[in-house]
Write the structure tokens for this entry.
Amino acid sequence: MSAPGELRSRLAADYQPVRALRSPWTRALAIVPLAIVALIGAQLAFNVRSDAPSLGWLGVWGFSIAQSAIGIIVVGAALRESIPGRHWSSAAIALWVAIPIAAIVVITLVSWEASQVILRGAWWVVAGVCFAGSAATAMPVVAFAGILAARAYPTRPAIAGLLFGLGAGLMADAGWRIFCHFSEPAHVLSAHLAAVILSTIVGALAAVSLSGLRGEEHALHEPVRPRRDHGD
Amino acid sequence: MADDSRLRELMREYQSGRFEAVDEIYASIAPALRRYLLSQARDGAKADDLVQETFLQMHRARHTYDPSYPLMPWAMAIARHVWLMDRRTMSRRPWAPDDVTAMELPVKGEAASYAERDQVRNALGKVAPAKRDAVIQHHVLGFSFKEIAQRAGIAETAAKLRSSRGMAQLRALLKGGQEK
């Protein structure tokens, strides 16, 4: 049995050799330059947090690099999710979401333990700046990760988008915390975490929209059916 | 079905430029894909359509296949996606009857010159569903091609094509009926 004639001619029409995509984890490394920009951007534009001496190198840079690395790994997970047949199970997805959020919480609590700079007055202004800055930093990373994911074939785009949005948010927040010297849990777990959540939502929506565009392409295919069907 | 290592090899060849490998891939996995799609769609003709669409999508996504993994889970995931996409597309479509024999048709113009309404209804019942939907929505329900395209999630040109092909098929069926 060979492929039906009409299907074969359609396949032949745009057939050309392709190079198989590299492994998702390798492809995720493409985002490292953007992760570095996100990591150092805020402190270059503004400054390193004023309580850096009390936190030490590990508390400022070490934790942020670790958080950014987790973000890159989560983007890798999103890229794996974008390959047909290599979906994550529900439990694995729950872990991929829980681990980064737990990382933010732990880093916040440890930083707060080491340096308790209390946020007094105009907290909403600081929260607004951190939320907007962190979210804005995440968007280019979301866009780039979205392109990487779309180059594969995400059959569950919402989940792929959720993961790469979360990874991007993590990377952006990793940079923003180097500038923001308020480790007060109420501040970080509202303003900073909200930016991560926004980035996650934007990632999911962007991936679903891209998939919708691809869906139109899908629907453009007139059915290729053997002539015996429907009297065609 | 060819064994897994042979399928991986065939797919690797298909990726790297040997188009003819598609025939052996088709022969090896189309029956399994059809069984799966038939279990979902419960309609043989629909399952055949979906198998073809799955191969088109496999072709588009061939760069995502990693030959160090088995082929079938990859192909099955695409088949499942094709099935879900098709179900979503169908759910967005407006009402279009499967049974057109009881339909009230405002038959006018060239259709009236061919035959009675019953003949039109019977012939319409033989037109392929996608084309029939477009014909009914445009010529009977009065939707514009733009509206049909939006509702079906397809391009306007595809809607026009479906309608014109459906009309051509309808004309041919009516003509055949008259000659008898």
User: Anything to note?
Assistant: Chain B has nine helices and no strands. Chain B touches chain A through 54 residues (CB under 8 Å).
